[in-house]
Design a protein that fits this description.
binds nicotinamide-adenine-dinucleotide, 370 residues, NAD, 14 strands, isomerase, UDP_G4E, seven-stranded parallel β-sheet, UDP-glucose 4-epimerase activity, Rossmann fold, three-stranded mixed β-sheet
Length: 370
């Protein structure tokens, strides 16, 4: 019998966070990769990765091979991407060419906080990306999938938003995402060894349906769905949700966002990773540079009031809300045009809002204190 090639090693930065942990689970499910995770614990808990491994292991058949079992193990590194020496230590362990590709998920992500502390955001999201890319180059690792964000569009002139929209981020956070994308684009133009895909993520929600892994932010959640879940289990003081503005030009007057299930999003990361392989035809249409950017969303706008209603149905909790004035910086509608990702990557976010809320609630009610 011919021997199988060694498992490809994929480094996931921010692997212990919300998106990173579901991306790792999705990679493990293919049984083709050996995952290396790097995280500094800024917004993650020490048990996050062992939960992912346990979940993947539980899905293996009884007669799983040693190789299959190896795919459920994670090489985990406590590493801060703003520390060049710490990143080098991780890459040194695997040597030149030892890591096949990087999925770069780690970043700070709170828009409001970035307005207050811009330099912290530029350091953690831009300097960190620069250090990562420099270290990758040094170790002959030249494939990268980057978790970007819909915030790169600022206030978009066209809804649903196509990728061709001029990038005009408003907040320092959004600008850090534009700057990181720009670095990747420039690098791919300068050096044909590099290939990179930026994924402009809209609003991920939900959890693995088992409730074994999910979103568990430190402190008060900044995003609407986890905030509602925390309210329903009594983990935040607030009993009344503050809704900022109901006079926007949207069907019910509240802001509209494009939600997609976290496992659909993770599948999008896997598709992008696979598209970086030398056999992929993805970059045939861009001979000058192996760089592309895609929207990952469902292509359907959902309002704040629709979310509250869906969470009421999923949890049985009677959320109270009050309407306040508009909040500075809020954009009325951020709905993706996901057609390009569907056409070129084969990406489709199929799971609807009721499933997202159900899975979020399964996770939250099983893990009341996180
Ligand atoms: N969750 C969303 O709503 C959303 C939407 C669009 C884009 N994104 C992007 O997706 C990415 C991940 O988001 P998430 O929701 O998983 O966030 P998260 O906070 O749950 O995960 C990020 C992880 O990165 C780690 N990290 C942060 N700075 C680090 C550093 N300097 N070195 C090492 N590790 C570091 C954190 O500890 C955390 O575990 C971010 O880049 C974010 O901008 C998220």
């Amino acid at each position: 019998m011919s021997e199988l090639p060694p498992l490809q090693k994929i480094l996931v930065t921010g692997g212990a966070g919300y998106i990173g942990s579901h991306v790792i689970y999705t990679l493990q499910k293919t049984r083709r990769y050996k995952v290396i995770s790097l995280d500094n614990g800024h917004n993650s808990h020490p048990t996050a990765l062992s939960r992912v491994s346990a979940l993947s292991r539980s899905e293996l058949p009884e007669n799983a091979s040693a190789r299959d079992i190896e795919t459920t193990e994670i090489d985990s590194h406590s590493c801060d991407l703003t520390r060049r020496d710490e990143i080098r230590t991780v890459f040194e362990k695997y040597g030149k060419g030892g890591i096949w590709a990087v999925i770069h998920v780690a970043a700070y992500k709170a828009v409001g906080e970035s307005v207050e502390f811009p330099l912290t955001y530029y350091e953690n999201n831009v300097t960190a990306t620069l250090f990562l890319l420099q270290t990758m180059a040094e170790f002959d690792c030249t494939r990268i999938v980057y978790s970007s964000s819909a915030t790169v569009y600022g206030v978009p002139p066209i809804i649903p938003i196509p990728e061709t929209t001029l990038l005009k981020a408003d907040s320092p956070y959004g600008k850090t995402k534009v700057m990181s994308e720009t670095m990747l684009d420039d690098l791919c133009h300068a050096d044909s060894k590099w290939s990179a895909i930026s994924l402009r993520i809209f609003n991920p929600a939900g959890a693995h349906p088992s409730g074994q892994i999910g979103e568990d932010p430190k402190g008060r959640p900044g995003n609407l769905l986890p905030l509602l879940a925390h309210m329903a289990v009594g983990r935040v003081d607030a009993t009344t949700l503050k809704i900022f503005g109901n006079d926007y030009p949207t069907p019910d007057g509240t802001c509209v966002r494009d939600y997609l299930h976290i496992l659909d999003l993770a599948a999008g990361h896997l598709l992008a990773l696979e598209a970086l392989s030398p056999e992929s035809k993805l970059f045939d249409s861009t001979p000058d540079a192996r760089y592309k950017a895609y929207n990952l969303g469902q292509g359907r706008g959902i309002s704040v009031l629709e979310i509250v209603d869906a969470m009421r149905k999923a949890t049985g909790f009677d959320f109270k809300y009050e309407i306040l004035g508009r909040r500075r910086g809020d954009v009325p509608d951020l709905t993706a045009d996901p057609a390009l990702a569907e056409k070129e990557l084969g990406f489709k976010a199929n799971q609807d809002l009721a499933i997202m809320c159900r899975d979020l609630w399964t996770f939250q009610s099983k893990n009341i204190d996180g």
